[in-house]
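step=encode ok
step=design start
structure_in=
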């Protein structure tokens, strides 16, 4: 299937979700994510700030801020800079403002030096081979290529209906697979 067709289909499916169903699925994704041993043992978290119909990460970020009171952890979120992206450490949601794409981004803060980190990635579709179909900008692929994908535990979060059969998602040589996918129903 063409990437553009699959992107459009997934956006429509996410948009058609009932609000209560979305809230319940977001809660389940969050619960499944924080159960992971790799999550529990991490001290650096690179997390996208959810936008529109994406699987919610705002509750996760708030949870991480609370977790900082118990142990030393760091939370970093992405900021688009031209055709690339970098991560900046944040301590409060008030440090975020709408960026050029309408997505909340750090208004201030320190650009983080890539650490061994637990990275939560967005996407429109995924498969059991851990292929990820993003929005087409290549921001995560470029970032991971630049700093070394192996430095990160790359975990994508999505609704279970975003999972595709093997072979549906076409991949290019610059596409980087995720290590794990967490949905409202399963781990892949």
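sequence_out=
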């Amino acid at each position: 299937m063409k990437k553009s067709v699959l992107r459009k289909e997934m956006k429509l499916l996410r948009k058609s979700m009932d609000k209560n169903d979305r809230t319940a699925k977001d809660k389940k994704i969050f619960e499944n994510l924080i159960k992971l041993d790799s999550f529990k043992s991490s001290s650096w978290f690179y997390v996208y700030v959810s936008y529109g119909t994406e699987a919610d990460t705002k509750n996760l970020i708030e949870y991480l801020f609370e977790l900082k009171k118990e142990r030393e952890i760091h939370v970093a979120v992405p900021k688009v800079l031209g055709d690339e992206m970098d991560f900046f450490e944040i301590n409060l949601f008030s440090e975020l403002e709408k960026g050029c794409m309408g997505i909340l981004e750090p208004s201030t803060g320190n650009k983080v030096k890539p650490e061994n980190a637990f990275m939560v990635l967005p996407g429109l579709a995924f498969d059991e081979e851990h292929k990820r179909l993003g929005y087409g900008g290549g921001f995560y692929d470029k970032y991971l290529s630049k700093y070394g994908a192996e430095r990160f535990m790359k975990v994508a979060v999505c609704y279970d209906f975003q999972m595709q059969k093997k072979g549906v998602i076409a991949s290019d040589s610059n596409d980087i697979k995720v290590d794990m996918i967490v949905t409202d129903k399963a781990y892949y």
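step=design ok
step=annotate ok -> The chain has one domain: 3-182.
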